[in-house]
Amino acid sequence: MDGTLLLLAPGSGAPSSHPRMQAFRNMLEPHATVVAFDYAYALDGRKSPDRLPKLIETHRAALTRLRQQRAKVVLVGKSMGGRVGCHVALVEQVDALVCLGYPLCGAGDAAKLRDDVLLALTTPILFVQGARDRLCPLDLLEGVRKRMSAPNALHVVEGGDHALIVGKTELKARGLTQEEVDAGTSAAVGAFLGSALGS
User: Fold this and answer.
1) Rounded distance between C-alpha atoms, residue 7 and residue 91, angstroms
2) From CA 75, how far away is CA 170, in angstroms rounded?
3) What start and end residues bound the annotated signal peptide (predicted)?
4) Nearest of 28, 89, 83, 93 to residue 55 by alpha carbon
5) Which of 51, 59, 97, 135 is the most buried (most CB within 10 A)?
6) Which domains, and CATH codes, for the chain?
7) 0.85 exceeded by the pTM?
8) What is the percent of the chain with per-residue pLDDT over 70, rounded to a whole number?
9) pLDDT tens per residue, range 107-148
10) What Cα–Cα distance (Å) separates residue 12 from each residue in 77, 88, 90, 188?
């Protein structure tokens, strides 16, 4: 998509150089220019993420740098990166959001829903979720989506885990490769961006 930039944020456990993050980048690149960044704690070599305000600050700084190119900007994030991107979208004008494995349940606890930021959003958002993701049970996400004001869509990776990876046994049984599963995700993201950005 000409004139569109995708700002790709990593999850808490893997920097932008991680092979799975590179796979996500490859999924996104057919649709727009991808710019990845890392949070300050990862750049400093620390394993534990900073607190949310610091994460938001780093994310906003990356967005500010990108804005100098005067393009449409979509925030794409893996897990924590998607959640932080949602918080950024409450205070910065962005064109759309894509969450790859949104961590709806804190520590996998259904009693600790991280839904406040989702309910406050007005920016169009796509959730890409693995059907086996214990951090985001699909029935709980569906309940949240019904209460959201923002236009929202869902792409389910059947058999996918939190990293949207399908187990080898299931892949074999379905006659698929992970690359083919990822291609389906890429197509879903492309369709969402076309709709959300009016292209």
Assistant:
1) 16
2) 31
3) none
4) 83
5) 97
6) 4-196 (3.40.50.1820)
7) yes
8) 97
9) 667 778 999 999 999 999 999 999 999 999 999 999 999 999
10) 11, 17, 21, 24
